[in-house]
UniProtKB/TrEMBL annotation, chain A:
GO aspect biological process, one term: negative regulation of TORC1 signaling
Presence of the UniProt keyword Cytoplasm in the record: yes
The CASTOR ACT domain, residue ranges: 73-140, 261-322
Gene: LOC113081078
Superkingdom of the source species: Eukaryota
Keywords from the named record: Cytoplasm
Subcellular location: Cytoplasm, Cytosol
UniProt record similarity statement: Belongs to the GATS family.
Entry's Gene Ontology cellular component terms: cytosol
Cytosolic arginine sensor for mTORC1 subunit 1/2 ACT-like domain segment(s): 177-259
Species in which this protein is naturally found: Carassius auratus (Goldfish)
Stated name of the protein: Cytosolic arginine sensor for mTORC1 subunit 2-like
Pfam family, one: Castor1_N
Gene Ontology terms for molecular function: identical protein binding
Automatic annotation (TrEMBL), chain B:
GO BP of this protein: cellular response to amino acid starvation; positive regulation of TORC1 signaling
Domain MIOS-like alpha-solenoid span(s) in chain numbering: 398-627
Protein name according to UniProt: GATOR complex protein MIOS
Any matching Pfam family: MIOS_WD40
Organism: Carassius auratus (Goldfish)
Gene giving rise to this polypeptide: LOC113059288
GO cellular component: lysosomal membrane
Similarity section: Belongs to the WD repeat mio family.
The keyword Heme is annotated on this UniProt entry: no
Length: 329, 877
């Protein structure tokens, strides 16, 4: 297995809902006019609380300074697991589950905080730049580490520093944050970048005007519905996460759908904003899923984390996590 | 972003007149001759000769990303279309739907997770197999191989799950691929390998090219590279693959799949298409974005390198099929050589044939061969007998001269100009000059005056420079008492110069009478008269002119000239003088003209004579030696020498001699004529000379030898080498062949020969003089016997018994030649392959009738292995 350390230096920011209008110019440019910026990594996730932006340094310049914009103080690097062109067995569980044991758990054991972003195409594990030596040390045994420099993939040498690193404590990881599961079902999809202009206005409407338009007919969040939408444009690939109702607003054949038409339900982690320093949260969720062989997507935002699991598995997932929760307490 | 679809073009694999343009829809065109009666109003002109007719349009398949044409004859016009959502749809164009096609058209192959389909490829053998390369998905494969004949698989799509697909007609959906390859990566391009149809070459996002074998998909060969777009196999060379990345094309050899064999020069703009020419070996065409030129790389001269170090040569060209517009895409015609159709972004099409590079070669025998495409043309010189000798190509002339032994007459050197054809005044002058030089040298040798000898070959220019002790005389006109007012100069050097000019033969006396006689004999009346006049003998001159007038075919005008001459007066202001000096210019004959110029000019001012270019240099120089004083003469000679050198006029050799100046002169002569033959022979005469060491001279000699070899004039070349080694002993070649003993390894010629470096070692073995005298059948070093001849079974060294088949009468006829032949007959020869051999004579006669080795049970085709063995010298004496 290869672990690619991508060259993007990423910022994680949050825009308050009421301040979104001052940022829309920059966001539209980043999302729909990729040729006008040098940004290669852009992700926008709307949650009921805020908009979370993950963007590289070139893209970050497009955003104005504002009181509504809060930025996590670290620079993040994206890691990407590649099976090295190898052709592994075909019945692999997909998504975060696949890398839970090999990447996420070891990082959690070494107290490295991670920030997850799953897309239609792949999973990105974001780590703080300052944690990189530790990350490389932790993962060098399992992976061939490759670093992308100016578009070229070169072997990254582990610094080999072992002194002073805390020995991992292999303790069971209970789920410590409260979980909730909204009632709406989600779709993880993508679209052909060539067709992006034709749906750009629709996407803008979904991204920025969701608060005003009550298209779902008076359903409120009290009834378990959650407002959640994610758009990312990373190295030319578009990935979208939206609920099922929103997909119906798109013309036929624009969105990439799976042949099986699979739908996903969300598990939302955290009652209080989670912050960036606590580690092991992703591991707490993903490890039980990996054990149960349930595929999942995992999207971290500024305040909370979100896992997506197949709709038919939601009960067993909740069950499994609750069990963990109770044993932890 | 507005016009995301740039038209691409696809030729029908089996119908050379059909192609499809695909952008947002598929349009089938037929290409035909322009202006033919069937041309309808709707045709589009493609070139001056061809036009395209639109046959059908298919707009059933939106979001097309790639298209591939079914490779088999039937169904004829079946296309696979890869869409933006990863589905592959089979569709057809302009077909009267036959049953097989109908069954397939409309069939869709749906990947588990939708993403863009980047590339499609039909398996060339098992044409039911269609490989599709898709973008990456985190949990899906990027290469799906579909079986187009597979039926709807019931287990794959539960009805209630199909809610997002929006397809009602799910009976035509296929969701279960035959094979899945390449997880967690995107496939940007792929192709089947023609050597083994179960093998597939994939190019993935993560910078690798991988070869999968469908029989064992877990094993693969792969290589990391950036060049992962547009992989395409050379149709003429199944191991050669081109792939590209941005502006760079890499060429791979699948047998050595570690790194590209080479990469082509990088283009500043990204490439959009790379295609091998199907009709010509090793021709690759590339197109970059927003460009109006197509670059061609000719790799047919590229041998596959044996080592890594070999950097193959590629000929790069670019063509501009339509001058104004940029090219969106192009496609080679499947059968018409070097033909392609290009399409511009606004669908303007252009039929275009890449003009083949013309390669051209001169043969050594004045014919010219040029090749263009599959045609080979030979142009030969018009060999009509009427062609004047002067118009003949220098190569023809040299060939003829070589055959007539030109240059080989070392006794009567002047005769060489006759051997050369006798019609070139410059050669005539050159060989006479060399003749006089040789003659004078011989005279000197007889008199033991070797101090002057070195001067002879250094030319008149150097001779007059060394002149000293010039005396001045004023002689009377012979036959009268009148004193001339023309001073005449004498010195030893001047008379030497006159000898070299051929005016006087030898000795200190200046007696031109023999020269005049010879001129009279040759009918050169005017020249003779002029020479007589310059020797102040008007009477003799008049007499010569009269003789000339009365001779057969004589010019009666000479009498008139004689009359005019007889009226000569030395009075300065006479009417005669006045008229002669103006009317002489109207005389057509240069010699007559200078005669009057001499008589009418002021003493010491003979420019009208000296610069009369129609008169031979030797006559003008002789004149100058007689009438110019010690200051005028060297100046005149220098000036003339310079002129001759500039013009490359061989008459100037008289002045320069065989010195460095002479080589300079010869250089401009060779530059002008290419006659290395004359140059070689001439310079060889300058023996003990530094001139022979001049690299230019060596170059002429080598070129002349090569030329003789190229004409297969091997005997002539050998004769030339002998001639050369006589005149230039340093050019004797070192021995090139040695025979060493199998047992002790010592050269058998060394140990028995008193002279260690004797090239003709074989003369010891059999016949040096008498055949019985020195017989060596064993190694002189170790006394072991020499190998046996495969034919006569005698040990080598035994002389060949008399050649069977040679008539006795012939033997006597050409004794010397037979003897030489007999010597060679005894020589060793052997096959480098089977190592059998024997006496050269025996072998020669054996292989006259056989192609196989004479040793029984040896099946070596020795004679066929010898590429030069079947060549026949074209000058067989």
């Amino acid at each position: 297995m290869e672990l690619h350390i991508l060259e993007h230096s990423l910022k994680v920011a949050s825009i308050a809902k009421e301040g979104i209008q001052i940022c829309t110019h920059g966001l539209i440019k980043l999302a729909f006019l990729p040729s006008k910026t040098r940004c290669k990594f852009f992700s926008l996730t709307e949650t009921p609380e805020d908009y979370t932006i993950i963007v590289d340094e070139d893209g970050f310049k497009e955003l104005p300074e504002s009181e509504y914009l809060s930025v996590a103080d670290a620079t993040w690097l994206a890691l990407n697991v590649v099976s090295g062109g190898g052709n592994a067995a075909s019945s692999q569980p997909i998504g975060v589950t696949k890398i839970a044991k090999s990447v996420i758990a070891p990082l959690a054991d070494h107290n490295i905080s991670v920030f997850m972003l799953s897309t239609y195409q792949t999973d990105f594990i974001l780590v703080r730049e300052r944690d990189l030596p530790m990350v490389m040390h932790t993962l060098s045994s399992e992976f061939t580490l490759l670093r992308v420099v100016n578009g070229e993939t070169v072997a990254a040498n582990s610094t080999g520093v072992t002194n002073g690193f805390v020995k991992p404590k292999l303790v069971p990881r209970p789920v410590i944050h409260p979980l909730s599961s909204p009632s709406n079902m989600f779709c993880v999809t993508s679209l052909d970048p060539d067709t992006l202009p034709s749906v750009a206005t629709l996407l803008m409407d979904v991204m920025f005007y969701s608060g005003g338009a009550k298209e779902t007919g008076g359903q409120s969040e009290d009834s378990g519905h959650i407002r959640f939408f994610s758009f990312s444009l990373i190295e030319g690939y578009i990935s979208l996460v939206m609920d099922e109702q929103t997909t119906r607003r798109f013309p036929n054949n624009v969105l990439f759908t799976s042949a099986s038409g699979e739908l996903w339900k969300m598990v939302r982690i955290g009652g209080q904003p989670l912050g960036f320093d606590e580690c092991g949260i992703v591991a707490q969720i993903s490890e039980p899923l990996a054990t149960a062989d349930i595929p999942a997507y995992y999207i971290s935002t500024f305040k909370f984390d979100h896992a997506l699991v197949p709709e038919e598995n939601i009960q067993s997932v909740i069950g499994a996590l609750r069990t963990n929760e109770s044993t932890g307490q | 972003m507005s016009s995301g679809y740039k038209p691409d073009i696809l030729w029908s694999p089996h119908h050379a007149d059909r192609y499809v343009i695909c952008d947002t829809e598929l349009s089938l065109y037929r290409i035909g001759p322009a202006g033919s009666p069937e041309t309808k109003a709707g045709t589009l002109p493609l070139s001056e000769e061809t036009a395209a007719t639109l046959l059908a349009i298919n707009s059933d398949t939106p979001y097309m990303k790639c298209v591939a044409w079914y490779p088999k004859h039937e169904p004829e016009c079946l296309l696979a279309v890869g869409q933006a959502n990863g589905r592959v749809v089979l569709t057809s164009l302009g077909q009267s739907h036959n049953s097989k096609c109908k069954e397939l058209v409309g069939k869709e192959f749906v990947p588990k997770h939708a993403r863009q389909c980047n590339t499609l490829a039909w398996n060339p053998v098992d044409s039911n197999w269609l490989a599709a390369g898709l973008d990456k998905h985190r949990a899906d494969f990027s290469v799906l191989i579909w079986d187009i004949s597979s039926k709807f698989s019931p287990e794959s799509v539960p009805a209630e799950k199909a809610r997002l697909s929006g397809d009602v007609d799910s009976g035509l959906l296929v969701t279960k691929p035959l094979y899945e390859l390449g997880q967690n990566d995107a496939c940007l391009s792929l192709c089947w390998l023609p050597r083994d149809h179960q093998k597939l070459l994939l190019a993935g996002m993560h910078r690798n090219l991988a070869i999968f074998d469908l029989r064992n998909t877990s094993q693969k060969t792969f290589v990391n590279t950036k060049a992962i777009q547009g992989v395409t196999v050379d149709p003429h060379f199944p191991d050669r693959v081109a792939s590209f990345f941005e502006g760079q094309v890499a060429i791979w050899d699948l047998r050595k799949f570690e790194k590209p064999v080479f990469t082509l020069t990088e283009q500043p703009k990204p490439l959009t298409k790379v295609a091998w020419c199907p009709t010509r070996m090793g021709l690759l065409a590339t197109l970059t974005r927003d460009s109006n030129i197509i670059r061609l790389y000719d790799m047919q001269h590229t041998p596959m390198p044996f080592g890594d170090e070999v950097e193959p040569t590629i000929i790069e060209r670019s063509v501009q099929p339509c001058s104004e517009s940029i090219i969106s895409s192009f496609a080679w015609h499947p059968s018409a050589q070097n033909r392609m159709v290009v399409v511009s972004p606004n669908r303007v099409m252009n039929d275009f044939t890449v003009f083949e590079r013309i390669s051209l070669a001169w043969s050594s025998t004045t014919s010219l061969m040029w090749a263009c495409g599959r045609h080979l043309y030979e142009c030969t010189e018009d060999g009509g007998q009427g062609a004047a000798a002067a118009d003949k190509d220098i190569a023809t002339k040299m060939r003829e001269r070589a055959q007539s032994h030109y240059g080989h007459d070392t006794v009567q050197v002047w005769r060489n100009h006759v051997l050369a054809g006798g019609d070139d005044p410059q050669l005539r002058s050159l060989w006479y000059t060399l003749h006089f030089m040789k003659q004078y040298t011989e005279n000197l040798e007889q008199k033991q005056q070797s101090n002057k000898q070195s001067l002879i070959y250094s030319g008149i220019k150097n001779i007059v420079k060394s002149s000293s002790g010039t005396t001045e005389t004023r002689r009377c006109w012979s036959g009268s008492d009148r004193q001339t007012d023309v001073p005449r100069y004498h010195s030893e050097e001047r008379s030497l110069a006159l000898q070299l000019c051929g005016w006087i033969s030898r000795g200190p006396d200046i007696d031109v009478e023999p020269f005049l006689k010879s001129l009279e004999q040759e009918g050169e009346w005017e020249r003779a008269a002029a020479v007589a006049l310059f020797n102040l003998d008007i009477r003799r001159a008049i007499q010569i002119l009269n003789k000339g007038a009365s001779a057969e075919k004589g010019d009666l005008n000479l009498n008139v000239v004689a009359m005019a001459l007889s009226g000569y007066t030395d009075e300065k202001n006479s009417l005669w003088r006045e008229m002669c000096s103006s009317l002489r210019l109207q005389l057509k004959k240069a010699h007559l003209c200078i005669m009057f110029a001499f008589l009418t000019s002021e003493p010491g001012a003979f420019d009208a004579v000296l610069y009369e270019s129609r008169v031979a240099v030797r006559d003008r120089v002789a004149f100058a030696c007689m009438f110019l004083n010690d200051t005028q003469l060297p100046r005149y000679i220098d000036k003339l020498t310079y002129e001759m050198k500039e013009a490359g006029n061989l008459e100037g050799i008289l002045l320069t001699g065989l010195t460095k100046d002479g080589v300079d002169l010869m250089e401009s002569y060779v530059d002008r004529t290419g006659d290395v033959q004359t140059a070689s022979f001439c310079m060889l005469k300058g023996s003990p000379g530094e001139v022979l060491k001049d690299p230019r001279v060596q170059c002429w000699i080598e070129n002349y030898r090569n030329l003789l070899d190229a004409w297969r004039f091997w005997h002539k070349r050998a004769e030339f080498d002998i001639h050369r080694s006589k005149l230039d002993p340093s050019s004797k070649p070192l021995p090139q062949v040695f025979v060493s003993c199998n047992f002790c390894g010592k050269s058998i010629s060394y140990s028995c020969s008193a002279i260690p470096h004797q090239g003709r070692g074989f003369s010891q073995y059999g016949v040096s003089g008498s055949p019985t005298k020195s017989k060596v059948t064993s190694c002189p070093g170790c006394r072991k016997p020499l190998p046996r001849c495969a034919l006569c079974l005698m040990n080598m060294g035994t002389p060949v018994s008399s050649c069977p088949g040679t008539g006795k009468a012939d033997e006597k006829a050409d004794l010397t030649r037979d003897k030489k032949l007999a010597q060679f007959n005894n020589w060793f020869t052997w096959c480098h392959n089977c190592r059998h051999g024997g006496h050269a004579g025996h072998m020669l006669s054996w292989f006259r009738d056989h192609s196989e080795c004479p040793v029984s049970a040896c099946t070596c085709k020795c004679m066929q292995l010898d590429t030069t063995g079947n060549l026949v010298p074209s000058d067989s004496a």
